[in-house]
Amino acid sequence: MLWIAIRMLTGDAQKFYGLLFGIAFSTLLITQQLTIFVNLIERGASGVYNAPEAEIWVMDPVSRTTDVNYAMPSTALDEVRSVPGVEWAVPHLRAAASVRTGSGDLEGVAIIGVDDATLIGLPERLVEGDKKILAQPDTVIIDDGGVVNLFENGEDPIGQRLELNDQRAVIRGVADSIPSFTSQVTLYTKYSQALNFVPGTRNRLTFVLAGVSEGLTADEVAARIEEQTGLKAETREEFADAGVNFIIENTGIPTNFGITVVLGFVVGVAIVGLTFSLFIRDNIKQFGALKAIGVTNAKIVRMVGAQAALVGTVGYALGVIGTVAFIYAFSGNPFFKGFYIPWQIPLISLVSVIIILAITGFIALRSVLSTEPAAVFR
Amino acid sequence: MSTGQDSGTPMDTSAIGGCAPEAAICARGIVRDFESGQTTIRVLHGIDTDIKPGEMTYVVGESGSGKTTLISIMCGILWPTEGEVRVFGTDIYSLSDSELVNFRLNNIGFIFQQYNLIPSIDAAANAAVPLIAQGMEIEEAREKAKVLLDKLNIGDQADKLPSQLSGGQQQRVAIARALVHEPRLVVCDEPTAALDANSGRRVMDLLREVAVAKDRACIIVTHDNRIFDLADRILVLEDGEVTHDGTEMPEDH
Considering the entire predicted model, what is its pTM? Predict the structure, then answer.
């Protein structure tokens, strides 16, 4: 009977494709929007991910994220270095500035000052240039997303001069980095150089990045640092989470994406529900005839279940493939750089599809199950 | 409440409940009420009747006379408000729901007025539906159905969808579906309603040829007076009561 059920459904091409469209569209909307949402909020932690060597981030107690920070006195570096269990500690500066490009445009940028000696704080890989180039005077390394923003006409950034706080900066490298939440242009330079680029304030050390001695965990050492220095110390994971949570708590993004995801669900229920009900209504005489002939309600339920399973499987697959194609198609766009689909998202979409089909299938089934076999004689 | 004035071969009614042992259907005291808002409408008023195998029995009457309700009850798809129905000795309304569904599947063939064929499967598969529902493999069921379609002279249409068949061909597919599982009772609802006189007679001849057998009963609901002469037995219903049970229609109809 399942074969008959499938043929009944696929034989009505209009409704079959309507159902597929409903499920695929719903899956696409839910999967794609959740993917963008997750990747976008993860960018709240991009500053942490772009400094892979740092196991502990030490900061002023009021600092919350890599971007929402309050500078500490430079003595904080020595205080951290004095804590047992700290293998190494380096200064890290993050500040906002404005640059004037060669063509006279003004652009807000993030300045990141990395340790002069070790270059800890710099992204792991450069797209162009060598990390050692930072030793040259006035050198900055721009992030690859920043290249697109700053040089929209496709100019080669290498060798380009910028004016930063009335000082000359020369781009001599391009970093392969995860864009920030705001996709702001980021310029990496040596800590000592960054102090010159950023307008002078009394305290300018925003973070101390630290490593952990062998045999100790980052949690233990972070606790020791907090206890001994009075500063806030967070492990890499904790600080990454803090960046993500800050965006969730302080922006309307979760609400906006949440609304879109709910809309995807509602649209799915509406399209699939309406089409499924129409399909059942069009075939109610046939279902009635089957019941009269001797097909049990349990078999009818299995028939509708098979129809829902077919529509769900194909529609869901199309929706997920659509999302993958979307991400792939836009992978060259800096906004979508590094976007991936966490495995939990297709699972959420699958559960949503199952719920959509369960709701709509149940509604459609009610009319079949309540149909008296005798109705076929009327 | 009439059981016959001119009932052909006399039946032995000494069996349990007054049912003749050879009766295909034995209905006793059938009452059926329908609720309509606050009102209860009695459609059947205590009908007693027997249907014999080997005969083509017509149930005739005006619209609203209760003939469709009566055959629905006789073939186990509508519960009577009161009364008992035995089909080939089985008290069908004492069966559980699932037993009754299985009983229908194995013992009754239906020919609906509008055929109710499944539009997206071919004629052979449509005819094979009862066998598939019984659990037979699709291909085996289709082959068996094709044999019957051949017998009904539409074997060459077996692979066509219902929409590719004429009305008469669709009806033959419906007949094949009713007979493919070799039921002991065949129920036809207005088989000639949409046909002209000649086509109607041809269908009835065909039904007589394939659906009537000595161990099979065939009940036909109709109000088509052009085919009354083809019946072995006619039950006339008026206002929920059997007013005539004989081999021919009464003079006043």
Answer: 0.77
